[in-house]
Specification:
Largest sheet: 4 strands, antiparallel
Distance between the termini: 42 Å
Strand content: 5-15%
Radius of gyration: 24 Å
Order of helices and strands: EEEHHHHHHHHEHEEHHHH
Shape: globular
Helix content: 55-70%
Strand order of the largest sheet: 3-2-5-6
Number of strands: 6
Structural class: alpha+beta
Amino acid sequence: MAWRSCAVLFRLTGEDVLRSSAKGGSRIPHSVQQRCSFRKVTRKPEQKKGEEETPHIESLEAVVPRRTSPPHVEQRAPPGPPRDFGRLLKPFVFTVGFTGCSFGAAAIWQYESLKSRVQSYFDEIRADWLEKLRPQKRGDVRKEINQWWNSLSEGQRTVTGVIAANAVVFCCWRVPALQRSMLKYFTANPASKTLCTPMLLSTFSHFSFFHLAANMYVLWSFSSSAVSMLGREQFMAVYLSAGVVSSFFSYVCKTATGRFGPSLGASGAIMTVLAAVCTKMPDAKLAVIFLPMFTFSAANALKAIVAMDTAGVVLGWRFFDHAAHLGGAVFGIWYILFGHELIWRNREPFVKLWHELRTGGGGGGGGDAGGAV
């Protein structure tokens, strides 16, 4: 099973006190695969002449997870041609459709957020006035939590839900009864019968704690810069779309090379965030977190990461899921250079349509609502 994980940690220096990391994806080591307990089908001895031969079908769906059985290293391709590019049509349609729905939902989210800000402003004034009249409690846990939450940047508050979702999925991997379903729906593999849903769910899936911690550290570090640059609604649309796009790139590479195997991890989506920030701020200084004395520009770091992943795809390196990383990086660069103008700048007609549906077609304020930034 191939993992999408982060291998090298960076940090932003100078005015941007942020940390970042280059990404990689690793295959599950043999010891970890044994913990995942996917049973490898043993080869039957040759039967003697005269004995009846019983048909044997080897497929992933027939493998029953066992806690003590040896791991199943690679999945077999489904019956048919091993490089059937026709199977990629459905994932391609899902990628395009999901990306469009993500940005459409983000536009509606932004519209509703702007509409509610005026009302929430007056509610906050009234709440502050009542808070002054109410006697203060010492050691109020809720108050401490609110203070901590308000101390976070908008980007950090935005990715908190994403990190929580990844943590929940990580805990589900520890339940033996769920491992069969986790492998089916939370790992992306073009050889699997379930193709579309895992493209998104695998973005929230991590089997190793180090894999989870590294990816979430990078996401947390880059969240402030990315959200301040895109806004929380646009950021979430880009992040979710990037997870599906990077999975589709992985599908194409695996189908073209015939090397099938499940992949999981948020690194494809995080690589999009990293590439977007480095493209938008190419002169920002990065440093390896363990070697802070060596600094380099974000543009050079991005070039090195893309070159490494490209070499991994061309040379067939299998220790990382380089195709997913490269797909995420390309999507992040493309979105900053072209995608923002092509998609997000042209959302106004859709927002106007939503405003008319929201208000029942009445009122003349539809144009004002659609001009939100």
